[in-house]
Predict the 3D structure of the following.
Amino acid sequence: MSTSRRFCESIRSLFDPESVAVVGATENPEKPGYLLLRNLIDLGYRGKIYPVNRGRETVLGLKCYPRVNEIPGEVETAVIIVPAKEVPKIMEDCGDKKVRSVIICSSGFGEAGGDGAKLEKMILEIASRHGIRIVGPNTTGILNTYNGFTSSFVKLSKPVRGPVSIIAQTGMFASAMLEHILTTQPYGLSKVAGLGNKVDVEDSDILEYLEGDPDTRVVAIYAEGIRDGRRFIEVSRRVSPKKPIIILKSARTRSGGRAAETHTGSLMVRDEIFDAACRAAGIIRAGDIEELLDYTKAFAMSPPPRGDRVGVIAYTGAGCVMSADAIEDYGLRLAELSEETMETLRTYTPPFGVLSNPLDAELIRMKVGNAEESMKLSLEAFMRDPNVNMVSLVMVGLRRGSKIWEVDFRRVFSKIGMDHPEKPLVATIMASREVTEEFNEEMARLGVPTYPSLHRNIRALSALARYHLKYGTSNNLQT
Amino acid sequence: MSTSRRFCESIRSLFDPESVAVVGATENPEKPGYLLLRNLIDLGYRGKIYPVNRGRETVLGLKCYPRVNEIPGEVETAVIIVPAKEVPKIMEDCGDKKVRSVIICSSGFGEAGGDGAKLEKMILEIASRHGIRIVGPNTTGILNTYNGFTSSFVKLSKPVRGPVSIIAQTGMFASAMLEHILTTQPYGLSKVAGLGNKVDVEDSDILEYLEGDPDTRVVAIYAEGIRDGRRFIEVSRRVSPKKPIIILKSARTRSGGRAAETHTGSLMVRDEIFDAACRAAGIIRAGDIEELLDYTKAFAMSPPPRGDRVGVIAYTGAGCVMSADAIEDYGLRLAELSEETMETLRTYTPPFGVLSNPLDAELIRMKVGNAEESMKLSLEAFMRDPNVNMVSLVMVGLRRGSKIWEVDFRRVFSKIGMDHPEKPLVATIMASREVTEEFNEEMARLGVPTYPSLHRNIRALSALARYHLKYGTSNNLQT
């Protein structure tokens, strides 16, 4: 097998192994070695599972082996979840067995300094001698929603499949973010890789795998450090035009850098350098978790925009004013409505109303009598207007005790004759918690991403527009 | 009565009138004149209510009058909700009746241009001739949670009383924000003033009233324009040291300015000038709605910090790294833990663990065996450490299927022996929607403000610290 073929096969074996050894499998429900095995079974992983534990005949009904190299069949990958000092010996067994890759969940390596750092060198030496790829140590590792394979020892919600893949240094964070995404975000996931200390497999390796993964359209990354920055930028430059890459890179400051050293043993890169490299490679950078998830949602759910001109339909004057500010702040342009749009809307605007973009939809409502009709008319006009490349919808939810104010967006969409918006449309509502949740759920069903504020609407659109301006609309953002 | 006494009485009459005329009262449930009256009755307003409507004998069981000046008793204030062109005549009646103030909900004045602008001039002339103060036009006006008085024609949730008062230009936004706050924020409200076109009563007038209002501790403002900027800054400079003022000022950009002109007829101020004036007057500026509400929550719920040194307890290494970054970004300092804290925590840290601030609480958990105990130990140490002025708690909620990982913060607080934190403590969790909601509710009960991300934790602390550094801890932030 050629080196590059072998390399690809090793990374593939991390996400799609036909067989896995679980070293440290146990029936003690307090132990990660139990939860991990439980997850593999519960998520319906179809490959062969070989529990490895010296002290047991079976674990959870599966035949158990004392050592990896005593397993009779082929073993593609091994998940290792035993104390750090036992890992080198297990790695030798894996080498003996010609295992392609290992996922080391155990902590107590580079991040712990001293003896941990020595152990880390040892496992690297063993891996390189046997040609084994390592994910981790110090992580929850891998999740593939499409085949149910995982190395996570955190109890997982049943994952929804979808176009987003996540690479995150640090497993606990990856797992918590995963729970958060699965229960709050309207898109599904494809692959999750928690890379931990990144002693071997890095973001670039996973990115190369995701490049060819038909189930991944968008990649979101949380990283504290990237060992081979040059390669990461090279790979990203190649992947970016096909699949947007959004990164939250921490350890940006001196204090952050110090904290990262003890967390994942990452060394700091000067942030200006990393930032410039990201821009050159077309990587979309997020400053915090909310921004990372906001952009991920926009890319996962939006068709590509044809330009940077935004139309705003706001159900309150304040929404118009703040949206206009935000559009200027984020370097976008307010669309100049076409003559056709102006003419159409003029018929539905009372004489004292000033018709412009941002459009105060309440003006239209005053003339046409109810909010739903005003939404239908303005949304339709904006979605059709070739001068409008993206639309931001700003609703207020007021209990005015009357049907006049109710808007059923499902009906609005079907009246306009669209299943999903054919140009980027984002929405927000200022309302009670209950109304906000209902609105967000309805919008999610209609394929419209929602945000908690109009500012985040515009920020998300600005990420879409920047990406589009760099790469054009020929990418496969929307399947 | 002296001019200034009269002035104070007029503004007081807007929030606490003994009698109110509702001009445009009706029983048609689709009309604002109905909802307004309904609100007054439902919120339990105890003053005299006089419906005014030419065509009716009674409205909702209350005796109705054809004109304001035909009401027998005294009328302190009038809420006017009839078409714009009828307003001048009603204003004359109000003058005749010696009404102190009017709240004009009707739109179609300055914001509509042309005839609207003429009408606006007319009502101003009438008001000045009779010494009547005007709130609005083009707004939902006033809400006082302490006596149930309101001019709002939006159906209101039963408001919770609390320390925060809101001044917002534009009534629909004020109402929607109100609904949002009442159902999502863990603090209550005192006064809400939606000022609309601000032809007369301005932010400064309301601020002066709130200065002396014992029920208001924090003031949040949304403004598009402020007519008398000089006075606003003067009043703010006086009020700020006593009660923090947080402002979201829109119409900052050219596009925003244009949108504001047609919305509330506001004229734009150069933003650098406004910003400098705010800084001089100690006003806390927010860039968007989330920031406005984040700061409001921090000030409403936090004791004053004694400095800008932050301690972070994070239940994931990633939380430590990102918090350290955020602290540097927001100009705060990472606290250097005292020798005592270090000694205490060292006993509970495994040998390979690196003890520092931010503190990875998982280290402590590894040694002490369960998450709750690790939280108790670290929170107690941080709350006691005089080097730590403020604390940010970063949790991850993982379903690890074991009690070892569960934390009951009520129990943690009672073990530490505190009802509420005695120094600013903010918290966040990365978890599933359900776990997040539970956590936020538990924290709210313990008087701890929560935010959706660790970045917003630190941003909120930075607002507290900046305010403290300007005014010291002698203000009445906490009653």
